[in-house]
Amino acid sequence: MELLNLHRIVDVTLAEGPGARCAVWTQGCSVRCPGCFNPQTWTTRGGFSLPWQDLVSRVLGVEGIEGVTLLGGEPFDQAEPLGRFAAAVRSAGLSVMTFTGHVLADLPPSQLLDSTDLLVDGPFLADRPEPSRPWVGSENQRFHFLTDRYDESIFATPNRLELTIAPDGAIELNGFATTEVLEALLEGERR
Amino acid sequence: MSVTLKLRSEALAQLDAATIAAHAQAQPGVVTVRTRMRHRDLLARALVGLRAQVTDDGTSVVAAWEGRRITFGYGPEGVQVAHVDGPGLVPSEASRLVLSVDEAYAAEVQRAVLARLKDRAAQAGMRVESERVNADQSISVTLAATS
Question: Residue A20, CB half-sphere, CA atoms under 13 Å: how many?
């Protein structure tokens, strides 16, 4: 399989993991956690298709990033082409951080798992909000340092939000904040 | 877990209709252009940025440059029509003039929305960590949680 089904790509962001990263949201999620912040990514429709090789070219053309973050959707629903992508960018020196709604023990072996430096696993549980760690929504979600690329020092990073306001009127937002902060920030705006 | 959203600001969404819909040359040297720009304070700011002499009599805003003048007529929905006049004026030049105002207006609204979001961010316990203008003229701001 060559094609990825993607929801969004942000070339450079400080809000999706350690350091400056390219963030890639996949389209389609088989986990579908109640209370998910991105239910628009659940369906496999509505995204855009891209050969994994083209995504590699795009990412390697971005200056100043230390890695790629794969979010969803559910990245492991597309483990085969994403694994090839992850292996390619990693061999070029970039780190790979992957979010999944599955738990690590349930993930079958894959090139995506083998090519992930930092895995964040577990479903989002709306009734168990995470009090302190960055980038995760609920306290059950775990960080797995699968290589020596990162360690627990990343937990000192604050949660960040990035807003981009285009001249044509579109506002794009990514990152993590509590529901209360998002509501306060976006009051009066509309989806 | 991360949120990714694409939004349309109420204010910015109105720009969809701000672009010229039609124009007609009613008389030689005067071209009327249909447009809609709701916020007259932002319009005035945009015009000043374009180095126009700006006057506002309460029902219309007049922007004057040497040899060219645009009169923006206001209705309840904001600017409805822009009359452009000046010696030798042709419709294509009038359209270009109003489009340039439209672009400057959009930039003012963009800045206003950004300022509003930054104000709200501060109230929501986030601080502005960085801000940049991108190659496509979009403006990005990074907010960091303070607690």
Answer: 9
Residue B101 scores a pLDDT above 70: yes
Put residue A73 in one of left, alpha, beta given phi > 0 → left and psi -120 to 50 → alpha. Answer: left
Contacts of B120 in chain A (CB under 8 A): 184-185, 187
The reply to whether omega before A46 is within 30° of 0 (cis) is: no
| Closest approach of B87 to chain A, Cα-based (Å) | 32
Tell me the C-alpha distance between A176 and B39, whole Å: 32
Residue type, A22: C
Chain A within 8 Å of B24 (Cβ-Cβ)? no
**A42 near A36, Cβ under 8 Å?**
yes
Residue B48, token pair as written in the block? 């000043």
Distance CA A6, CA A47 (A): 5
CA distance A184 to B91: 45
- What are the beta bridge partners of residue A20? none
User: Tens digit of pLDDT for each residue in A113-166?
Assistant: 999 999 999 999 989 988 889 999 899 999 999 999 999 999 999 889 898 888
Residues 6+ positions from B101 with CB-CB distance below 8 Å: B37, B43, B46, B47, B50, B63, B70, B82
> CA angle B69-B71-B73, nearest 5°?
170
CA distance B52 to B100: 12
Q: Mind listing the pLDDT tens digit for each residue in A22-64?
A: 999 999 999 998 988 888 899 999 899 999 999 999 999 999 9
**B2/A99 touch (CB, cutoff 8 Å), yes or no:** yes
